[in-house]
């Protein structure tokens, strides 16, 4: 038999075997490496975040804190003295602190509501409850800050608002650990180089004064200078201390600084990384997630029950099943687009809360009044007394802190026009009201704008505006767009129609249409939550279906056998048994929702919100949105707080998953 | 694992025994499934393993070509001697062992490939690429497995498209394509109908001329008709600290005629007579 | 909440009453209509139908807004003038136009407020239909400019290589190209890594090792993508720049984003592929080992081929995920469409573009607003087709065993 064998001989078999084993070992190494790379990537991801969250910083003050305290260390200064220093240094801006830190009313009402409302639930001097904030004495306002703010917060206020602390440079943790110290030698070298640079520079300056003839020599020196400067850059980048020594010798250097601390967690946003916190983002995320849970869990479980227990095999149910599976694969940003077009826009009256009387636009009334005027060719500016009135502001507001509102109501051009029509005295008063905000000089050209000849009487115009505003609250029937008939009627009642040309009338209706669309802001927590709920619904349904399928058929049969109806069987037998599975699936889906960023961006998350969200219809931001925002900022310090926010987000997810495990164990023990 | 220094080549050794089990015990983790089996497997003979279900027949069979290596936690004590080598010596390469001691499983398991590719699978592993050579090997193997006439017209058909009996013969053809020395068959006919079973039984007799065959069967008639030697395994029980442990043991080994007609052990006689198992 | 209220209802009816009911009607076994049971069924059906509504909403909104993107007219000054006065009569249907200016190729032109449909053009003579689109037929003086109507054509959209809405260029190719680049790089990373990991776990790792590795890989899959984006920008990009030179690699680049997207989808591939590999019956492996194959040979020649369709499905799902991935590319790939094949250059992907455009306060009915729907539609169709395809492949793979 071996004679006619076609197989390789013994020798070549054994050689071949050796080769085959070698190839096997090689590939095994490759397979194992894949896993190791994946694990390394995970480790790198975490380490990178930690590296950016902790590290060294260099802090510089505009005013030395010691100077403010008269040379005493900060710990030795009493609370009262601190507040007094802050007040003395800030002057009128002291009130801004009260408004931003303590006021519970809308900023626009800060100066118009009594102290007892503005600081409701907080301490204020006895007997001042009825007064307005502007009527308080210096001692009173100091009292309010002193008694409502903690010591660390006071110190932070002093450093941030008065001393204007500024983190000029930050280094990641690996630098703090391994590349912090500068050797004596390096210092010597730096000193040397800097001395040389100074000398060379002055030589070059000398040459500059003697111009032309010395070109060659100058080139030579400049080349030397370049070399020296390159050497200096290399040296100063060799360690934290070296950089500090060269670039920020006056700054305070802190080797280990954590960007993640309790203050970070409980302070709201800020445009400056060193004071920014994620309080509003955390609250936004919590609000959204709780809502998502309440929306998607019942619907998801309901749909899964239907598909598993009720649906028979017809085309509709098959389509539904396939559809759910396909939806699970739709990119999340597409859900964002859906949310934007339908929830934010079409359902704006609902998602903005206007239908329920929330968020009815107030701030923009000034703008709209102005627009109406323009739409019908009624030039608001030259006509109405002190325009502030027609712009929707009370006269006294102009002299208070409500500067922002006026400014946002006016574009630069309009502002120019606005001021162009004042006489010098009015302009001065107006400018003073705006404190240190620069106003454009009155423009001669604008003065030349011809005033429309076909005009309404002021009184008519005012009535027209009122009619217009009576439509700002969309009714359920109209669903956002007040019907034209009713509007016509209202206009007719306020102004004789003959006073308006058809063009003016159409422009007015158009304005109204724009207005009702533009001013309703559907970019709210509710819209975000609904979008995310739609996004995770397929995941919840699929997971729940699996959990229900895992319930042994015998349970079902036993229940029916005892005469239970279908629903009784589902409610009392199947669901309780399936709950651990449903819970796990839901939590997984929710963790997905927590980290989703793209749909929230599209739906219109705000990137900067300094006040806590106060309900379903609040504008929102969320943790992942802040991480995204800060990651893409050019300043390195924002990266540090982005990393800190990532840690918070991951911890939140971890907590959620831990809860899921605990809940699941509890439930599975019981059943 | 390095290849064996001295080849396991059967042709270099002339002896009446193909394999010899010496005091073999097989463990699955801590559980001893079979204990102290000593048994000769004679060259160019058919040896049948019989015994009640769970007595460890498959376990012993699979330990002969180190298939149990694939079960995590499985461990063999004792020696299995093949051509003077202990198969469980540290330097022995299981891949080489399996190339020389082939296996046919209880349920036909052709690869989801064509009939040709199924049979050519192992020769290709050995580095044969030439289509003609492969064709010759495939034809010879299929002929030996008595399948050639049925499939020669469509060798490109999927192996899964064959009937159960054909599939099992395909698996046999696949096993003999590399001319192994020993073929282990674990209840090769248990999943087949009577006619297919008969074909397989006839086939075994034909293969015997070239190969040493070990077959596990629970069918007494099959063992009696097909095999030259029979090993009877049985289950032993013991209660230790109130916990019952069970394991398999070899009860009797001998020529088939002797085991069936004049068993030395009463147990064997009981089993053959169908009194238990 | 709703369900709970309903339940308490049912308790009253069915649990409170049955004892008496049974006594009085033991002989009557007629099926009784159970209205509340039906109601519940209906309610549950509605829950399920929400998914259908979602899809309908998606398709309708994407379709409608894309349509308005493609039908949106913008008027452009052609710099050509009419050279003869036109009176306000409908019979004046021939225009004499100046030689200079752009070639007129649009179907509709505008003179003052009147729109005119172009019937034919011969040299400097254009035959038109007056008062198109119900515009008023009015007299026009010689020397006024002709405006041409411009809409974004499907051809321009899918073949144009420049995307700059400000100047009316709407070629989606730069965005699609960037998306394909990041996805391709991602697959280049994820296929070897994911398959390697899957094979190791399914064929090599001992159960204990596997029990540790699997959940760890799942952690990787569960990390929010914005965190991966941060990782790409603060770790991968500096890494690439230090390897390939700071001048060769831009701060934002598709390579860094693509690699990190690859890391993101690696666990997806590894877990789906591992499922497919594990589903290959052990008997096939045994057959192969029994024939003297090594582990690698068994894996490559038996297990992998048998799991092919499952593995392909994993790849498709992964590609679809990579295409739809937003945050990593939005953070690390660059903002600003750029038609380039250089992986170290910045280029904005479809998703990145949508995220950036909609990040600000997008005003409705602007061309930007409409354009995100056209891009979204493209994205949706790409991923939808891929997902459908993968489900087909998986279905076939289920049939196999
Ligand atoms: N992979 C395995 N893991 C653990 N125990 C096993 C395994 N395979 C078989 N056993 C146990 O070993 C004993 C012998 O099984 P087996 O050899 O299959 O018996 P037979 O083939 O004689 O029916 C049985 O108790 C069985 O439970
Ligand atoms: Mg067996």
Give a written overview of the molecule.
The complex is a heterotrimer of chains A (671), B (277) and C (401). By secondary structure, chain A is mainly alpha-helical. Chain A has 5 domains: 2-47; 75-159, no CATH class; 173-266; 279-348 and 524-670, MetI-like (MetI-like fold, Orthogonal Bundle); 361-518, no CATH class. Chain A has helices at residues 10-53, 65-68, 79-90, 93-101, 115-118, 138-148, 151-162, 173-178, 184-210, 215-236, 240-247, 262-266, 279-310, 315-327, 332-346, 348-351, 365-375, 380-383, 403-409, 412-420, 424-433, 444-447, 458-469, 484-494, 502-518, 525-549, 553-561, 566-595, 598-603, 623-631, 636-670, and strands at residues 54-61, 165-172, 252-258. A 3-stranded antiparallel sheet of chain A has the order 2-1-3, sandwiched between helices. In chain A, α3 (79-90) runs parallel beside α7, α23 (458-469) packs antiparallel against α24 (484-494) and α27 (553-561) runs antiparallel to α28 (566-595). Chain B is α/β, with parallel strands linked by helices and 277 residues long. Chain B has a single domain, classed as Rossmann fold (3-Layer(aba) Sandwich). Chain B contains 10 helices and 10 strands. In chain B, strands 5-4-1-2-10-9-3-8-7-6 form a 10-stranded mixed sheet, sandwiched between helices. In chain B, α3 (115-125) packs across α4 (131-144), α3 (115-125) runs parallel beside α6 (164-176) and α4 (131-144) crosses α6. The radius of gyration of chain B is 19 Å and the shape is globular. Chain C has 14 helices and 8 strands. In chain C, the strands form 2 sheets. In chain C, strands 1-6-3-4-5-2 form a 6-stranded antiparallel sheet, with no helix packed on it. The radius of gyration of chain C is 31 Å and the shape is elongated. Chain C starts with a helix and ends with a helix. At the A-C interface, α1, α13, α14, α15 and α26 of A face α1, α3, α5, α6 and α7 of C. The site of magnesium ion has 2 residues of chain B, from α1.
